[in-house]
Structures are given as C-alpha cells and as structure tokens.
Amino acid sequence: RIAYVNGRYLPLSQAQVHIEDRGYQFADGVYEVVPLYRGRLLDEDPHLDRFDYSLRELQIAPPMSRAALKLVLRELVRRNGLSDALLYFQATRGVAPRDHKFPAKTKTAFVATMRRSRPPSAKQIEEGVSVMTTRDIRWERCDIKSLNLLPNLLAKQQATVAGVFEAWLVDDDDNITEGSSTNAWIVTSDGKLVTHDAGAAILNGITRQRVIKLMEGEGLTFEQRAFSREEAMRAREAFLSSSSSFVLPITRIDGKPVGEGKPGPMTRRLREIYVAAALEAPVV
Ligand code: PMP
User: How far is the CA of 230 from the centre of ligand 1 (A)?
Assistant: First the structure.
C-alpha cells in the first residue's frame, strides 16, 4: 500500500510523521473519507467542500489547492491499483512544541492513505443490521469532521461488545442525533422519512446529503428534525447512511424489531437508487 505524506508517495510501512505533530498530541486536525466505488470517486467535490469547511472552522490553512488535492487522490488510486476502496486524508495544524495555543507559524501537515473497502455483506444488506442506543457524550461542534473521535470510539466499542453493527447516540432530550460513524434515519409509523437536521449536533454526511437529493428526485417527502428514541422504537423502517455502508437497513434497535423486522420498501428503494446514481459517476 502506498501513502502520501507531506509531499511524497511512500510505501505505508515507511510513511512517518513527526511526534510533535499537533494531530498526534492534540487531535488538532480534520479528516475526510471518500469512497472509491468500482473505480469511481463518489461525491468528491462535496467531500472537499466539507474538508474546506472543517479546516476553516478550526482556522487551519488548507494544505494545498483543490486541484492539487484531486491530483494526489488520483495518483493514490493509480499507485494502489484498487477500484473499491476508501481514501482517507487528514490535515493537522502541523508540527510545533507542545502548547495549547495555536503556534504562530506552522505548515499544515497532510497525509493520505487508501485501503480496500469492507462494504456490508450481502446478508447485512438483505436482512438488515442491529443497533443499540447509548448516550451522546460529544461536544457542541459535531459538524466539524475533527480528529477528536474518542466518544465515537467508545460508542462503537460498546456496540462491538454488544454484538451489534452501530451505536445510535442519544442526546439529553432523548433524541437520536446520529450513529458513531453514520447518519441515522427512520420512516415513522405514519410513513414519513426523518433524519436529524444538519446543525452542530451531527456531522452532515455526504451520503446523507446525496440521499436527500435522490429523495427529492423521487418526489418523496421527508423531514429534517430531531426524533426521539421512543419514536425510533415505533418506526416502520430504519436505516443508516455513510460513505462506507451507503444505505444500510436497520432491523433491530436495542433488541426490538423495527416494523416487521425486515428491511422496508423505502430503505430498499433508497439503497437501489443510491447505488444506481453512484455508477453514473465517471471512472477516475
Ligand atoms: N456521522 C459521523 C459521526 C461520521 O463519522 C460519519 C462518517 N464519516 C457520518 C456521519 C457519515 O458521513 P458520510 O456520509 O460523509 O460518510
């Protein structure tokens, strides 16, 4: 595997960063994950827009121009020779002696890696997955895709120990914000598609945004608003969305079957049109 590290392409085993990189010491940086699906980069520009947004919110200088970044991603795809993969890249405030305040002068550090994707299995897509709920203990800027992921890791670990696919995070008002690394959706008992509104409480997923566009194209009505755990427990359908899982049905929440315990028609339709739209992207 080949990585890109501050200007150079290197075998992953030789790729190194400084131990006083603020990403390492403070998680002072942001990242993105862009899916490569059958040789196509999915929603590259929206991912780069969100990357710019995260950088701006943290006052980190962009590591390079958008055109240069696109070249790096294409070169990584070429050098790694994969066609179904996840491209990971991160930028940090750079290297400086450890001190909380922003260093006066640093150069943004940038690394990118790539690995084969591990999409959900056919069984998971056909039968759906289970989720559990747990408290959302994150901060008030979940809209920034920052490297600080400890609450997300703790939630995912809880889910793993419980033998379920994902943890849905519940805020102080008993509303589901999102999953530890996915956005959360339900179809209510009266047939409305609902997902939490984009704001500081969630990461506005690129897959989430794509699904919203596709729904608009299908003339489906949906609501972006908070929904409670209780409402989710009564939902007809539930699913999650993310760059690595696309649209994935959820058939159990905290052990209780969602609807009839099978992936619902809306979820199946959305997955189908998501994949169809993905295949319309140009091969890089
Ligand atoms: N929420 C969180 C907290 C995430 O980490 C992710 C994945 N990066 C998502 C939602 C889904 O976002 P996307 O569709 O852009 O992968």
Answer: 23
